[in-house]
Design goal:
The protein is an all-alpha fold. The chain has one domain. The chain has twelve helices and no strands. Helix 6 crosses helix 12. The longest helix has 29 residues. The two termini are 24 Å apart.
């Protein structure tokens, strides 16, 4: 019964989103275009002018696009696993009402993570279409890269949820983005190869889920050889999803059980 009841949580989130989707439609559709125009085309023209051979043998726009796909999925997952979770526990207290029904704590956590994956999927598909429109890669390859992006976003959502349910104060959420999400966005190979980082920082980048997602997306979209075997990255991201889900159940039970 765990999965059917978890799907009830997904249904509830979808019903809410159906009424508030207007608030995210601009960022969902406009952000990919702005990112690629500003960073890929604008900054990319300067990079390509100084690197005639390109970055990793391709133009900067081509190098950047799959990295931004993974990074956008990561940011979406972090958002779904932070403010929404805090709101459901502390502010609106909708999670208390849900577990008063046949939905258990495990069902709730599974359902929230599944919904986060749905949101990541929505955003990633839009970004993949934009990549195809910019002629970075054919639409089929761009859509294939949604798979790794989905893994990254789901991993970040699960990990963020496990972190958020342990917080006693809201101040911990800005710290998550300031000291984890944004540095990961900047230093996990999205904008430049991590070999350009200082030697001590490269191992840190290697253990971030975003770096593995970037490598997988870039392998599919640009056909660049990843630094590690693809199955290792897939297994690593899957482990983040499983671990984050398991680690969120206990603290969620403490927060919601009288």
């Amino acid at each position: 019964m765990a999965l059917p009841l978890a799907l009830r949580v997904v249904e509830a989130e979808a019903r809410v989103y159906r009424r508030v989707w207007h608030g995210s439609v601009v960022s969902t559709f406009l952000n990919p275009i702005l990112y690629l125009l500003a960073m890929g085309v604008g900054l990319g023209s300067l990079v390509d002018a100084n690197l005639p051979a390109g970055l990793e043998g391709v133009s900067y726009l081509t190098f950047l696009a799959p990295g931004l796909l993974a990074a956008t999925a990561m940011m979406t997952g972090a958002g779904e696993g932070s403010w929404k979770i805090m709101g459901g526990i502390e502010w609106a207290k909708t999670f208390h009402a849900r577990v008063a029904s046949p939905i258990s704590i495990t069902n709730l956590v599974l359902g929230l993570n599944l919904w986060a994956a749905v949101r990541v999927l929505m955003v990633s598909v839009v970004f993949a279409v934009v990549i195809a429109v910019f002629r970075v890669a054919p639409l089929f390859e761009s859509l294939l890269a949604v798979g790794p992006a989905l893994l990254v976003g789901a991993a970040m959502a699960a990990a963020s949820t496990a972190y958020t349910v342990r917080l006693k104060h809201i101040q911990g959420l800005p710290m998550l983005f300031r000291f984890v999400v944004i540095p990961m966005f900047l230093f996990s190979g999205v904008f430049f190869p991590i070999t350009q980082l200082p030697g001590w920082l490269q191992p840190v980048a290697l253990v971030t889920p975003l770096w593995h997602g970037v490598e997988l997306c870039r392998m599919i979209v640009v056909d660049l050889e990843p630094a590690v075997a693809p199955w290792i990255s897939v297994a690593y991201l899957t482990a983040w999803i499983v671990a984050g889900t398991v680690l969120a159940v206990g603290p969620m039970r403490k927060k919601l059980t009288p």
